[in-house]
Amino acid sequence: MTSIEVDTPHGVAKAELHCAPEGVAVLLLGHGAGGGIDAPDLVAAARAAHAADLHVALVQQPYRVAGRRAPAPAGHLDASWLAVAEYLDEHWFAGLPMVFGGRSTGARVACRTASAGQAVAVLCLAFPVVPPGRPDRNRQAELDAVDVATLVVQGERDPFGRPAAGHHREVVLVPGDHSLKADVDAVSRAVGEWLARVLRPLVV
Fold first, then answer.
1. Looking at domain 2-203, which CATH architecture does it have?
2. Handedness of CA 114, 124, 168, 202 (dihedral sign)
3. What is the DSSP secondary structure assignment for residue 201, as one 8-state letter?
């Protein structure tokens, strides 16, 4: 494991890199609004990706590096994420396909930046479709805007709702709620199977 710092337009971000022996692609994973990169579902997804011979970068947004819990504005999150992706592409993983991913808020960032960052696929863990009690803040459109292969792993009892499947989008339900920690093996299995399938045509 290697820890690096990356200057972004909104402060210093950090990335924890887990490099695979060969490394057929790279999976970038972002954390939730008030959480960190040690969330159980992120660890499970990273483990599955590493087993599938992907490099993994667990990305900590500048506001969390600075010790703040309240998330930065969406535009700041997106710009910082893209800065980290660009840095990794230039200095660590040149030319390799990139999969953007994350949990909750991190999943939203991955969706919003997938096109600009030329991600080949998007992994969403616990995508927060509708905040409890706020039906006016439905985020399904962020998922619908992604035009590459997308996997959503969602807890069966997630109070933030259940995303709809779509043309490029698979939705896998696993036991548990928004934390996705009730059955991390199910999370890991879903991610590993999906990565193997969507990346096969890109790395042959």
1. 3-Layer(aba) Sandwich (3.40)
2. positive
3. H
How many Cα atoms sit within 13 Å of 173 on the Cβ side?
8
pLDDT in tens, 70-115: 889 999 999 999 999 999 999 999 989 999 999 999 999 999 999 9
Quote the Cα angle for 166-48-45, to 5°: 60
What separation, in Å, do the N-terminal and C-terminal C-alpha atoms of the chain show? 27
Tell me if residue 145 falls in helix, strand or coil: coil
Does position 186 have pLDDT exceeding 70, yes or no? yes
Dist CA 133 CA 126 (whole Å): 17
Domain residue limits, the chain: 2-203
- Give the model's pLDDT for residue 149: 96
pLDDT band at 203 (very low <50, low <70, confident <90, very high): low
Kindly state the average pLDDT of the residues 61-68. 94
Give the Cα separation of 116 and 89 in Å (integer): 14
**Phi, psi (degrees; rounded to nearest 5) at 98:** -115, 135
Q: What would the two tokens of residue 100 be? A: 């953007």
Task: Specify the DSSP class assigned to residue 165.
Answer: P
